[in-house]
Please model this.
Amino acid sequence: MELMKIHINELVFDCIIGVHRHERTSEQRVSIDTEIEYKYTGEYLCYSEISNFIEKNIKEEKYKTIEEALIKVNKLLKLKYKNITKIFIKLTKPDAGENRIYSVSLIN
Model:
């Protein structure tokens, strides 16, 4: 058994996320970066499948906070892929501020 890590950088899509009125009615662009450590025992983790899973969940759930989205996605990934040992996931809202970029990350 070997310990592996996959990296998914700049998974970009539009979704409903946020607590402000305009964020609940208009989609905004988000970017996801993630590193997933897993036990490799001959079966690999498909980064395309994981990317699609993350995007679909965040789009469908329309989370109110980035924190809520990260916690839920983390839990769901670990349930779906039992060989995951550690996840770093960061969600960025690149257009949320006039002259700044907001991000929140979870390490678990």
